């Protein structure tokens, strides 16, 4: 019953999906385009390659009623979680099976983008074969324990001299590569301790005093760390930042008073960050945060169907109910569709060969990790 | 605080909200009764519906579902010997023998009352936790968490059954299999053979179903007849109530342990019931544990309901789910716009208390529902087993592949099933195997992290020393228990098949050798835990093989073969596993749905000797159940070669 129609009634799976698919395929012929855009009576599968209840799943379930409401014909949409390999398995399956009929869509996230960018041999998908119709950003804040005596970048020398900095990480190629690269760029001597089963346990290690430095994504930071900040048990140093419409790194709209990472690094190092580590950080930051979530369809999907999806998401983003309720799930970030989405997609899914080679070499040097 | 408690109760008492709670209770009940599906599957089911509900109603529904699933999953544990969910495995050890003795009613009634009390204790502890949970949970660092894992492991002594050495090796096999997948310290893949499936590690639900359920089904099918050997339910409804009241102190202890262990994030709830079960064995006098002692049922069932209350503590106050179920619960909270965390208690105390009340009320509701329906469901035990067997095989397969939704789940189920069957036959205890498997990952992770964070001095932390003291007490109590266990009779003539038994004892040796070989290819941090484990286990298991095969006077309990004098009435030892293997092989060829139809037709006609109308009717029912469940859970059945070649419509694809 994971099926919702706009009226909240339970829908039925279309047993004649094969026939329907045939119809839609026929509908792609010139002159039949209009039929292809109407999803009345259809069932759309939204593949989420991660667990029920996780961040991506919750994000998709939040979007689901809006998408159903704003697609012509108000199709039934079901979320299918195909897990395994941290998102690689379900994404591989989408790549192998999805037809260009607009009836199967994929929700991807940073942990699906990273193995692709870093050249994980288990990846059988190619972002170049897909067309994005929605991009969703998030952000993150790095914070430290007050005992370090560091309040802002002005105290950077103290931070650099601090002994025994430790960071609880989920793994060398997880989203936690972004803070690890940040430490590298800043020249901080931080011992990375792996094996955290998510950012939550990482935060717990911080609260217990085992790690004096940690980061959380925006929603977790607001809900879990802000109370600590108010109690004086945590000091936020900088946010990762956000991308503006021109694709430039700017302050995170959720944290206008915090410097973004490049600002912090510039002040700390005396010059804007540059070099391969910075290139790597920037791409992985975009793929992991600034443009973390995408909805994609196969690239061969007829333009009319892609445009129907873009229009539906555009209407979602303008929906007053969406705006009212998005805070808990998405935070105060503007999701985008259309041109802005395509730009974000290009930035999040392209890494130059030299940067990739540098990252792989760095993983080997720094963590003895071979992809 | 009292005021907030009362106003939360009033808020909950609206008819609409109670209705949603009842809905949650109903779904939790249905999902709980189905073997192998627990609260996780139930929550995934209702998640699409909670969007737009009012906060209290949605929470009441979610909590109601989780609470009741933990009560209702007793049905399959007791009546069929199939763990109702991977979190209530220990119930089968005593509950199922009771059902076979014709005491299903007594076992069920004791377990429902125990569940209810456990659930309410969990709610009470949660109430107190609102005030004190934070500092307590923060006091447990990785060092203490590692020691708690060791405490869990120390239960192997009492769970080992007649041969301690075999218990240790069984536990070692579990630990070894638990290290498959990404290494916590380095993310290197161990024994994954290049597959994504194994790189995630072996799934616990499949392992539990294979090791316990499959061998039970095979055994029952061989015997023919009915589950209840007396073919009656017994009139033990009041006896069960009396049992529970008489053992009230055990009930309270088990509930308290369950909720406290449940509240510790990162320990893995699945080990709680084994710790509680071990505790019952250690502390109760004149136990007949494992042979149908009602105290085994009471302890475990009280603890697994109490645990759900405990598990809400880190979920609500830290936003950290302590189990898969709680992860989905947390996702549900986000969807209705509630963010868990410290501010939930400070700003939304009303919601926190509404959750607690829901937990208590739902436990009472659920117990009522279980009592009302159990006479009906208990009738399963007096139906000819040949008719139930194919359904049970189907349900176990379904439960197994619902975890990863991969054909490999079925192959793993079959492999572990064969292992379980042989372990049972040759007297290798299975609970230590599961305990080892569950604890492998937390042990390795927390040991590595504690060393990184604290160095070896972590062993001198006060919390660590306290837990070390507890471990010593457990070991001491366990030694006393061992003397009793090893004094039991040996199977007569077990020595006749000692060559075969020695051959089977080579299985763990081969496993440990493979783990060692793989560990040597990894970096130091990636290989040290499995490698060290394998070396120790090889030193224990190799002499064991020799002792079993050649020793002149092997120690008591070492030789065991349940099949030396098989009952001539019974079917062959491998016959029914062969049926399951046939189903799995067929599924690999033509997909699970079609394979299941053929399996039903063939099994009912040939093995159960049903008439054609009966066969067709039961097959149709099976298809209906499968289709509805798959539709509801949005899953495709595992596909075979046929599906890879031809594009078929659902449900055939």
What is the structure about, briefly put?
The complex is a heterodimer of chains A (371) and B (653). With 371 residues, chain A is α/β, with parallel strands linked by helices.
Question: Biggest interface between protein chains, with counts per chain?
Answer: A-B, 69 and 67 residues
Number of continuous helical runs of chain A: 15
Based on secondary structure, the structural category of chain A is: alpha/beta
> Are there runs of chain B of 5+ residues with pLDDT below 50, and where?
none
The tally of domains of chain B stands at: 2
Distance N to C terminus of chain B: 56 Å
Query: Class by helix and strand content of chain B?
Result: mainly alpha
CA-based shape of chain A: globular
CA-based gyration radius of chain A: 22 Å
Provide the helix percentage of chain B.
Answer: over 70%
Please write the CATH class name of the largest domain in chain A: Alpha Beta
The average pLDDT score of chain A comes to 89
Describe this structure in words.
The complex is a heterodimer of chains A (371) and B (653). In chain A, 44% of the residues lie in helices and 16% in strands. Chain A is of the alpha/beta class and 371 residues long. Chain A folds into 2 domains: 197 residues, Bordetella uptake gene, domain 1 (D-Maltodextrin-Binding Protein, domain 2), CATH 3.40.190.150; 148 residues, Periplasmic binding protein-like II (D-Maltodextrin-Binding Protein, domain 2), CATH 3.40.190.10. By secondary structure, chain B is an all-alpha fold. Chain B folds into 2 domains: 478 residues, no CATH class; 71 residues, no CATH class. Chain B has 29 helices and 2 strands. In chain B, 62% of the residues are buried. Chains A and B meet through strand 1, helix 1, helix 3, strand 3 and helix 4 of A and helix 3, helix 7, helix 11, helix 17 and helix 18 of B.
């Amino acid at each position: 019953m994971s099926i919702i129609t706009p009226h909240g009634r339970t829908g039925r799976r279309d047993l004649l999906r094969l026939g329907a698919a045939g119809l839609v395929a026929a509908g792609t012929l010139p002159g039949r385009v209009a039929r292809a855009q109407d999803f009345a009576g259809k069932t759309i599968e939204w593949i989420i390659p991660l667990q029920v209840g996780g961040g991506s799943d919750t994000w998709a379930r939040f979007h689901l009623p809006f998408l159903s409401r704003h697609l012509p014909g108000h199709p039934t949409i079901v979320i299918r979680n195909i897990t395994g390999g941290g998102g690689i398995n379900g994404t591989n399956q989408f790549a192998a099976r999805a037809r260009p009929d607009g009836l199967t869509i994929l929700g991807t996230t940073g942990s699906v983008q990273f193995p692709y960018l870093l050249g994980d041999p288990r990846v059988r998908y190619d972002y170049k074969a897909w067309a994005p119709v929605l991009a969703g950003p998030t952000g993150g804040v790095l914070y430290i324990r007050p005992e370090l005596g560091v309040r802002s970048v002005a105290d950077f020398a103290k931070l650099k001299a601090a002994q025994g900095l430790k960071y609880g990480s989920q793994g060398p190629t997880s989203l936690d590569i972004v803070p690890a690269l940040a430490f590298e760029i800043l020249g901080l001597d931080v011992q990375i301790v792996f094996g955290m089963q998510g950012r939550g346990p990482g935060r717990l290690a911080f609260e217990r005093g085992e790690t004096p430095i940690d980061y959380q994504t925006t929603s977790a930071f607001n809900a879990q760390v802000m109370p600590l900040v108010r109690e004086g048990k945590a000091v936020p140093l900088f946010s990762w930042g956000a991308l503006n419409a021109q694709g430039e790194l700017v302050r995170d709209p959720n944290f206008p008073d915090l410097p973004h990472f490049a600002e912090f690094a510039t002040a700390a190092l005396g010059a804007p960050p540059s070099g391969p580590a910075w290139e790597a950080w920037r791409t992985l930051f975009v793929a992991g945060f600034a443009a973390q979530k995408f909805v994609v369809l196969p690239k061969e999907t007829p333009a009319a169907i892609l445009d129907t999806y873009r229009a539906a998401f555009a209407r979602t983003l303008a929906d007053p109910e969406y705006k009212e309720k998005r805070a808990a799930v998405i935070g105060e970030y503007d999701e985008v569709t259309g041109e802005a989405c395509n730009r974000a997609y290009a930035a999040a899914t392209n890494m130059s060969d030299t940067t990739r080679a540098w990252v792989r070499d760095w993983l080997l040097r720094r963590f003895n990790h071979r992809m | 605080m009292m005021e907030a408690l009362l106003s939360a109760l009033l808020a909950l008492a609206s008819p609409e909200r109670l209705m949603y709670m009842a809905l949650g209770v109903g779904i939790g009940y249905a999902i709980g009764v189905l073997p192998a599906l627990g609260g996780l599957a139930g929550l995934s089911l209702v998640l699409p519906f909670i969007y737009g509900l009012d906060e209290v109603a949605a929470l009441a529904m979610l909590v109601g579902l989780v609470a009741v699933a933990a009560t209702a999953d007793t049905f399959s544990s007791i009546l069929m010997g199939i763990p109702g969910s991977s979190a209530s495995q220990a119930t089968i050890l005593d509950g199922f023998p009771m059902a076979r003795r014709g005491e299903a009613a007594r076992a069920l009634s004791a377990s429902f009352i125990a569940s209810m009390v456990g659930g309410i204790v969990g709610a009470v502890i949660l109430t107190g936790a609102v005030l004190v949970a934070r500092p307590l949970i923060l006091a447990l660092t990785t060092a203490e968490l590692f020691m708690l894992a060791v405490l869990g492991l120390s239960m192997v002594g009492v769970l080992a059954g007649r041969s301690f050495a075999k218990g240790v090796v069984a536990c070692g096999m579990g630990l070894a299999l638990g290290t498959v997948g990404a290494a916590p310290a380095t993310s290197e893949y161990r024994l994954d053979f290049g597959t994504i499936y194994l790189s995630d590690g072996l799934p616990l639900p499949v392992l539990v179903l294979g090791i316990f359920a499959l061998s039970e089904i095979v055994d029952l099918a061989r015997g023919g007849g009915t589950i209840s050997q007396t073919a009656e339910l017994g009139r033990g409804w009041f006896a069960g109530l009396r049992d529970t009241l008489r053992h009230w102190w055990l009930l309270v202890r088990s509930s308290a342990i369950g909720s406290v262990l449940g509240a510790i994030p990162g320990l893995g709830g699945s080990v709680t019931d084994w710790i509680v079960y071990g505790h019952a064995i250690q502390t109760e006098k004149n136990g007949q544990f494992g042979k149908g002692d009602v105290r085994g049922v009471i302890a475990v069932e009280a603890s697994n309901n109490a645990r759900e209350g405990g598990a809400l503590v880190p979920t609500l106050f830290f936003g950290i789910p302590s189990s898969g179920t709680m992860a989905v619960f947390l996702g549900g909270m986000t969807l209705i716009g509630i963010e868990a965390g410290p501010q939930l208690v400070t700003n939304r105390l009303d919601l926190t208390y509404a959750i607690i009340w829901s937990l208590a009320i739902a436990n009472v509701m659920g117990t009522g529902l279980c009592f009302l329906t159990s006479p009906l469901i208990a009738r399963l035990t007096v139906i000819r087993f040949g008719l139930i067997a194919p359904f049970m095989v189907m349900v176990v397969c379904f439960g197994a592949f619902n975890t990863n939704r991969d054909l490999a789940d079925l192959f793993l189920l079959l492999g572990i099933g064969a292992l379980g069957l042989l372990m049972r036959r040759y007297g290798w205890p299975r609970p230590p195997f599961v305990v080892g498997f569950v604890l492998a990952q937390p042990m390795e992770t927390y040991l590595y992290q504690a060393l990184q964070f604290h160095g070896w001095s972590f062993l001198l932390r006060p919390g660590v020393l306290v837990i070390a003291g507890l471990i010593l007490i457990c070991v001491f109590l366990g030694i006393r228990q061992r003397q009793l266990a090893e004094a039991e009779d040996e199977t007569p003539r077990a020595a006749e098949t000692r060559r075969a038994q020695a051959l089977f004892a080579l299985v763990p040796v081969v496993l440990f050798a493979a783990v060692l070989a793989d560990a040597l290819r990894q970096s130091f941090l990636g290989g040290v835990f499995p490698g060290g484990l394998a070396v120790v286990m090889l030193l224990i298991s190799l002499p064991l093989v020799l002792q079993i095969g050649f020793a002149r006077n092997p120690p008591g309990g070492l030789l065991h073969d349940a099949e030396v004098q098989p009952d001539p009435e019974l079917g062959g030892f491998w016959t029914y596993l062969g049926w399951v293997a046939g189903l799995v092989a067929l599924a690999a060829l033509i997909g699970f749905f079609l394979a299941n139809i053929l399996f039903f037709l063939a099994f009912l006609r040939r093995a159960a000797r049903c008439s054609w109308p009966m066969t067709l009717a039961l097959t149709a029912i099976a298809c209906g159940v499968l289709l509805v469940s798959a539709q509801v859970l949005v899953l495709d059945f595992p596909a075979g070669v046929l599906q890879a070649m031809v594009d078929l419509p659902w449900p055939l694809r």
